[in-house]
Amino acid sequence: MFKIFDFLLTKDIIKSYVALVLVVICYEEAISQNLVPDSSFENNVFIPTNFSEISASKFWNKPSWGTSDLFCKCATKKKIFSLVNVPENLMGYQYSHSGICYAGLFAFSHGQYREYIQTPLSAPLKKDQYYRLTMHISLADYSRASVDQLGVCFLSNKVNYANSNVITNLNPIYAKIENEIGRDTAQWHQISIIYKSAGGESYLLIGSFEIKKIQKTKVKAPKTVKSRINQVSERDAYYYIDDVSLIEISNYFQIDSVINNNQIMLDTSSKSTTLILKNILFKSNEAILLPISYLELDIVVEFLNKNPQAKIKVVGHTDNSGSEKQNKILSEKRAKAVVSYFVIKNIDKNRITYKGFGSSKSIATNETIEGRQKNRRVEFTVIEK
Fold it and tell me: Which of 108, 207, 212, 217 is nearest to 151 (CA)?
């Protein structure tokens, strides 16, 4: 949560200053409600002791015949033998991110096997409103592979694919999983998406739909692991999932205030304020935008269309992996790719400049996965003339 101090600047005031760097933060108000009724899988009607018992949850269920799982520490307390205990279970060893339970599913397994989980929302989504979905994931210890994304669907009605283990007729939004995060079995990591509602969606479905990249982890299950799947398959990617949150974003990008009221909200907690696009993602080591980036970029396009006098500077940054020369080249190419997207959307290229700084302007440590992820970013400055 960010502490925001409100300063409302009219366009005339902005013109009297050389440039203004907008703060663009995925900002949620403290009063926002999590629309996922059981975000940490704690509200259960019985103690799960075996696989395929996500039905123990009061809210979550499996929409296909795949055997999605629920893991709980409760079994140990009750001295019940359990294959799905927390922290030690038949898929690995992991404490809950919060509480005493979490869910688990195969993102990919032998053949085309997939698993999904589904829950009703506490209230229908509002038309044209932006929402931010976050969840924490951790690759199970005995997974022999990792994947590059998980899919999320917002649905008007509960679905049931009882005769299928792969759901193909929905239109998911993909939460990108970077290599380091997707392969980490020790820590929990947050992934997220931004969603603009069509209106009336009342169910959330999470699972594996299209997978573009599968990486082997070279992990072999111990002999003590009795799971037939783990012993037979060489391409199992099993993820623990916890703390799923869906929040209405009242000030997403804080661009609405600019468009509607000619006013801008500034963060004065730092000497300079920087607009950071959090969901602008590229192919690994390339300057090719991933489709998940388009939503945030389209919001910027909308801002530029409604403010035809505004000019922007796009800036690319990397972490410190690789040489500084290569990083600077890559960051500049990625900034240019963002500019190209705006031009394709009929924004005059003369309104946009770009630059790449490589890893020279880090905003977090490069010693952790989360820090490196924050450093791989795209920023832009809005200049009003």
Answer: 207
